[in-house]
Design goal:
This protein is an all-alpha fold and 590 residues long. It folds into 2 domains: 381 residues, Sodium/glucose cotransporter (Up-down Bundle), CATH 1.20.1730; 113 residues, no CATH class. The chain is 63% helix and 2% strand. Strands 1-2 form a two-stranded antiparallel sheet. Helix 1 runs parallel beside helix 15, helix 4 packs parallel to helix 13 and helix 8 packs antiparallel against helix 16. The longest helix has 39 residues. The termini are far apart. GO terms for molecular function: choline:sodium symporter activity.
Amino acid sequence: MAIHAEGLVAIVLFYVLILFVGIWAAWKNKNSGVSEGMDRSESIMVGGRDIGLFVGGFTMTATWVGGGYINGTAEYVYLPDYGLAWAQAPFGYALSLVLGGLFFAKPMRSRGYVTMLDPFQQLYGKRMGGLLFIPALMGEIFWSAAILSALGATLSVIVDININMSVVISALIAIFYTLVGGLYSVAYTDVVQLFCIFLGLWISVPFALSNPAVSDIGLSAKEAIYQSPWLGKIKPEDHWLWADNFFLLMLGGIPWQVYFQRVLSASSATYAQVLSFIAAFGCLVMAVPSVLIGAIGASTDWNQTTYGSLAPKDKDESDMILPIVLQHLCPPYISFFGLGAVSAAVMSSADSSILSASSMFARNIYQLAFRQSASDNEIVWVMRITIFVFGALATAMALLTGSVYGLWYLSSDLVYVIIFPQLLSVLFVKGTNTYGSVAAYIFGLLLRIGGGEPYLKLPPFIYYPGWVTVERVHHLTGDVEFFVQQRFPFKSMSMLASFLANVAFSYLTKYLFESGMLSHRYDFLDAVVSKHSKEIMDKATLVSNHDNIILSEMAPVRQALGATLAGTFTNTEVLSDDGASSPESFHSEN
């Protein structure tokens, strides 16, 4: 296949558009937030906390709507054994945004946090914050790598150019404008990204539907024509597996820095909630063309197309069904426009994850754990360096690791199993401490890893009830692979066990220390009787955009729960809609 000049021109045009918007956003907002006294580093992480409804609605929707979302939705609708019944991402992530808006956006935004890890470090200390950073970082990096990997697959359909080079160029563009403009560049390119996806796919759908090789998708939804109906079905033995995956998306989609990055940049707590609800609707709307394209792929006689006699599912190319439909069922100029738009959108999806990872590292690891006296300029440079490092790491993984999707599946499971129950505890459960947090971390990790991960060929060492051995055939090579499928909802069970372990061990250690059954000197984590240790008192001098404060300026709290860290994370000038300034004060109101 020769290089398609039209396709190359379309890609270049869309890439230039994304790059221009990213640089323009950085220039337009270069002094936003800083002129009001906000640190430059905080401005890069959360903008000037002045993101409005229009840009905010788009960028919040783009939290999940990107290359992986549209390609994955189309793939599952197309796959014969799954269909629309198993395309859970649209409803799962939409409900995730609704729940995030109802319960999590307001307490997080009203307390003026800068990253998702702030409340963990405030309540559990810097060491536990560092442990929780690991699954959060893995999730962001592997998500970026999966996006770039999908981009390479998409570009391979459009033009016969070096895939490695195209992925590297795409990553460099995203890294460049993120370095220059931080959250503002991410937010404004998200607006263009969603317009590109919406226009590119909707322009293509009518042409694909009218192709002579495509049967009536209404008929193929219920009857087998070229493959089983694309509506799909959930077998009785798979009900628990389906529910487990759905809860993973719905609840596991909340504790991500890419989401709270948008929440914390909103101009008020109420706006953060409204943006979450708008984004939930946007997720559903943006999934419609992907569902139709998956249905078109399932209704096509591929023998009548330029693709070849074998269907994509028989070539193990189901994951590329969206670009394949656009390439082979639409006129060339339409397919190039659609694929160019989607490619640019995929490229710009990686930016927010890279910014999220660097924000958490610069603030929660470098500044609060190691360099509490670091200047604002120093933090800015740490962010710039880590944006480049994490971007390069995600790019290398996309190019060199064949199991990048398996890594992302496992890391997203760990976010659900480890971080979500701890976020629940730190925001809504009174009295949890570092001992409970450590126990919850260990319980969740062991129970999830124990279930294995087929995509990584990681065998289980815990066989949950109902497990079966499944056969997977690789159509091109004829190789047969066997793996263990856990039909028991062990991911959700692991999450619940982690939550209960946090509560139980927190109250147990609190009782043991306060009753005198354990000597105070054994409180080596400073979690119960040593809340006012020098390490924690030092943190009380770190306020996001103020000079050192004195203890009399802080809200009175009970010593055992120790809210002396509230000043570390709370920017009092940005509080709105909610008077609570720390997890403890929030609990005491209830």
